[in-house]
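Annex B.
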Amino acid sequence: MRPSPSALLLTGAVLTEVAGTLALRVSDGFTRWLPTTVTLVGYGVSLWLFSLLLHRGGVALGTAYATLTGAGLAAATLASVLLFRDPLTVVQLVGMAVLAAGVLVLQTGPRAS
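Small multidrug resistance pump: predicted structure tokens.
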């Protein structure tokens, strides 16, 4: 089964936003040109893909934004644990599970017209 164009746009928006966020971590306050460029391009492409998703319709803004931020938060958190050795507590894992449940609930709502 092929993913829908909406799912591809949203996935691309999440991945580029996470790439921008991870680069932001190593940009040293925008003093390093390569991570700064990756941050700005990552956020820019993410917003562009998200705007295409909203333009084509079929996904409500609240649902799409919750998915973007929720999935982005989870992915950035897990990547920061792996790449930067950031700590991750059981309480934080529970919080991520609650967040995922909230996004799932939003996904079950009616589609945008």
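The longest helix spans residues 33-56. The mean pLDDT is 92. Further annotation is deferred to the next reporting cycle.
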